[in-house]
Amino acid sequence: MKKLNVTIQLEMSVPDEWELVETSEGTPVLKLPDGQFMDIAIEPLFTTNPEETWSSTEDEDTLNDILDMVESEEVRYEFVVH
Description:
Elements: E1 19-22, E2 28-31, E3 37-38, H1 60-68
Antiparallel strand pairs: 1-2, 2-3
């Protein structure tokens, strides 16, 4: 097996009402104004043709096999104030 490092950085414009909160384990997540919470994490997408539409898998075994390969994950959130 060989190692693959993947770094994901997103810049998003979000409503002012969104807040950063931490779970009881200290994991940062986003609190949305409708009482929901959101975490942004990796979700593998698949296609049979790379020029066509990509989608997540309906096959939970395939998804679990891919996610089991992830040894660690870190998501950082920061609001940028201008």
